[in-house]
């Protein structure tokens, strides 16, 4: 059994071996054929490589010859093109001569510039390639003729529209809350069509290094700007003359109305509105007015006259605003006509003369103000403050407009502010000194409010409108700045400005009080001295109470009103001592009531009573005569003093009168008992009334 199995396994192995041998033989056969194929392919590739080498040897010379021929052809074509191009340069002069000698606007600026471009290119060619050529002279000469023609066209077109902006248009611009491209769209300095031609000419001239036209442009536009400002000034001057004849406001049309026939009624109405608005603002700012309340309380107080001409100041304020508006319009125009990198420089040249003129006018007005101040007319300072406030308010607009300009141009506007501030500094210092010196003027004979007191209070009250404007000026004074220490640490700029002005007003009032108190010592009549001081203290307090001055002074002197009330009470007390001579006679030596009732008077007693009545009559008549000449302009104070007098004297005289009126101390009663208590009351009621 085992033998059979072994034989079977051996048979299987033998079969498998035969099978593997057969497969190996097959693989060897395949490898042989593959090797033969590879050998054949290698032979074919070698043969192909040899053929390519022979082909390259045959074709390459032919290819090189063809390339050389193509390059020669291309060079020939380029040469012919260059010849045509060069020949064209020789023909340019003849082709464009008739165009160039015409006026650019007659044939059209774009076409003229095309001809000039051809000439410029021709000149460049001859300069680079044949500078000794005779043709270059012809081309260069024609090019210069064309350049001059373009420059002349540029100047002539600018001159044609070198017209001032109508004053009515300028005034309407001044009414605008903000000046921008939209609000300036109605100001047509140069028509749009002309602007396009001028822009093209300017670009061409700039491209060809002809910069003279920028100077020409700046000069012409600067003259036009000055003409616009002058037209506005003349317009307002003529309107001022008309206003002087009672026909309208400063900016009303007046004699120029005939030139403005194209302005419809709506525009005229709007212009009048602008004028009235400007007049109201300036009138409040620079006139020495007294409020209706002040006039009611103190009708006898002197009101100072105006110093600097209001019209001149208003003209200047409008010139400042108008220059900003019109300069902005010129800047926008320059952006359209001048190359971008030269706009700022050109704009500086345009502004130079108008800005210099503005500074000169400001210096002139400041000089006039200083002269007025030196004569004691401090109302002129209010004109300067009005100018300073306006210039300060508009400074940010100028700064934005002049952002890229040189410092010298920007400094011109700052110089105006500095000049006006310096004028105000000197005026403020001079006013304090004048309060001291003017106090030495003659005293009023009737003891009324001193002129310097009314002037000082009116002036300081008018400063209220300029509190923010005055702050930078007052900050220069360290003594005034120290007063800010009483303010809260977080006090804003507005409160600090008020405190600074309050400190200045306090200084003025302190010097004022010292001046009139010292000067009043020259009164020989102590009663009149008390009346004079009472009037002045009361005037100061009433003015403080009826204005914002008290609130300002209270920031640095909280007890200000109490101080003046105490002084008023003290002067009333001193005044009441004037009754001592009268009261002296109302206290004769005491006599027993029983003696008076029994009528058993001694001759000595009768004489005492007679002397008492006679003395009272005499002193009362003298006091009535004198005190009728005293003046107390404040009705409330006047009536209060009369009431105090009556309450002080009448009870005493009533008691005296009742005690002796029925006593037979004389046969001639009417001689001694001349006045009843009612008569005395009437006499007192006529005090401080010179017409009584």
TrEMBL record:
Keyword Acyltransferase on entry: no
Role description: Component of the exocyst complex involved in the docking of exocytic vesicles with fusion sites on the plasma membrane.
Domain of life: Eukaryota
GO cellular component terms given for this protein: exocyst
Organism of this sequence: Scylla paramamosain
Segments of this protein annotated with the region Disordered: 236-269
Alphabetized UniProt keyword annotations: Exocytosis, Protein transport, Transport
UniProt GO MF annotations: phosphatidylinositol-4,5-bisphosphate binding
The UniProt record lists the keyword DNA damage: no
SUPFAM superfamilies according to UniProt: Cullin repeat-like (SSF74788)
Composition bias type Polar residues, residue spans: 237-252
InterPro entries per UniProt: Cullin_repeat-like_dom_sf, Exo70, Exo70_C
Pfam families assigned: Exo70_C, Exo70_N
Residue ranges of every copy of the Exocyst complex subunit Exo70 C-terminal domain listed in the record: 322-685
Protein name: Exocyst complex component 7
GO biological process: exocytosis; protein transport
Family stated for the protein in its record: Belongs to the EXO70 family.
